[in-house]
Amino acid sequence: MNHRLERTRVASRIVNLAFLALCAGFAYSPSAPAEQRAAAELKIDAGDPNQLIESSANAMLAELDARRSEFRKNPDRLYGVVERVLLPHFDVEYASRLVLGKHYRGATPEQRKRFVDAFYGSLMGNYGDALIEFTGDRIKVLPTPVPADATAAVVRTEVKRSNGEKIPVNYVLRKTETGWKAWDVVIEGVSYVKSFREDFGSEIDQKGLDAVIQRLESQRKGPAKSANGAR
Fold first, then answer.
1. Helices (H) then strands (E): counts for the chain
2. 42-47: long-range contacts (C-beta < 8 A, 24 or more apart)?
3. Dihedral over Cα of 229, 134, 74, 13: its sign
4. Cα dist. 214→83, 106, 114, 204 in Å?
5. Which stretches of the chain score pLDDT less than 50?
6. Which end of the chain is more exposed for a tag (fewer CB within 10 A), N or C?
7. Where are the beta strands (DSSP E) in 111-165?
8. What is the pTM of this model?
9. Residue 19: CB partners within 8 Å, gap ≥ 6?
C-alpha cells in the first residue's frame, strides 16, 4: 500500500477519534445520574485534571442526551454548546502554537488568531455532525493520580468504537494561571498535535500560511464566536 495513502488514512482516523473524544467530554462517569450531569456544567473543577475531564464530560453528555433531536435538526446549536462547555477548558492557543511549530514565530498576531479560529472551526465542520450520535457508554475514564505540585498531567481513557474495539485515548494537560487545561490527545500512542504539525507544516511550506488559513476557514461551521473568545 502507498505509504502516503496509509499515513493519510491513519491521520484521518486519529483526527476523527480525537475530535469526538474531545467534544464528547474527554471522559465519562456512567454512575452519575442525569440531573447530576446536567448540573456539572456550573461546577466544573479546573483544579484537578481528572475532575476537570469528568465534570466537563458530564456536562457535555447531559446536553447531548437531553437535546439530541434538536441538535440533529440544528447542528449550530451543538457547536454553541461545545464552545460554552468545553473550549474554556482546552488550551486552544497553546495547542495551535505547537501545531504551527516553526511557522508560529514568523506569523503575525492576526495570522495566529485567524489560524486558531480556523483550525478549530474546521474540526467542527469536518467532524461535528458525528458528535451528535456519540453516547457516554463509549467512553471510560481511568483515573490517574496527580501530585499536588504537578504542572503537567496525563489522564487515560478508553474509547469504544462502533465495532466494540477499545482504543486507548490519553489527554495531556498543563496547569495554567486559571487552572488545568487540556492541550493534546494521544490515540494509540499518536499525538494529534504532532500529526497536525506534520501535515500543516508541509502544506505551509508549499503554499504559505495564508493559503492554509483560507482553506480551513472555508471548512468552518458553527457560531462565529472565536475559539479565543471562548476561553
1. 9, 5
2. 44/89, 46/89, 46/178, 46/179, 46/180, 46/181, 47/179, 47/180
3. positive
4. 22, 17, 9, 12
5. 1-15, 17, 24-42, 223-225, 229-231
6. N
7. 139-142, 152-160
8. 0.74
9. 123, 126, 127, 131
